[in-house]
Amino acid sequence: ERCARGLRCLPRQGEEKPLHALLHGTAVCLSEKSYREQAKAERESREHEEPTTSEMTEETYPPKAYRPKHGRLSELKAEALKKDRRKKLTLAKFVGMAENTAHPRVVIPELRQEFELGPCRRHMEASLQELKSSQRMVPRAVHLPNCDRKGFYKRKQCKPSRGRKRGLCWCVDKYGMKLPGTDYLSGDLQCHAFDSSNVE
Description:
Shape: elongated
Oligomer: single chain
CATH superfamily of the largest domain: Thyroglobulin type-1
Order of helices and strands: EHEHHHHEEEH
Structural class: mainly alpha
Distance between the termini: 72 Å
CATH class of the largest domain: Few Secondary Structures
Strand order of the largest sheet: 3-4-5
Largest sheet: 3 strands, antiparallel
CATH topology of the largest domain: Invariant Chain, Chain I
CATH architecture of the largest domain: Irregular
């Protein structure tokens, strides 16, 4: 049931679960002005009561002003957006510094885990970001690397398959450099046959 024009659906004063009351139809239709006046009167009556021993402290703090729940949600949303913007800005600054090798690398604590990833994982993250930002998606133009758990390249790297035809494969070291003597082959390339002297 909707409230009449000029009225708002608001929880009752002192409601233990105001959002629950709004969602389950136990709220009342009031003008916002009268609701604020009731809240103010209730606060004043609480101020005049004798404080109990648990409420007595060395310092007394003024009571918090009443804020409707929807105002609190928008504050939380604004704070989350600010935090996200700051993170993107620091990430952009860090990527700019990493590209310019003349500057010493500075690791930002909140992004430390992201940059402790290996080169393969960073390559994959960059490819995924490029996919997200591109207008047209061309799946065969994108190469997602084959990474191990630590974020380094697995020895065997392959392009995507085309239908039933397997993609071309080649062997790399753990930093992604193509190993000499490995040609592009389709399918059954055995990279573990290369000794560790070629890989490291």
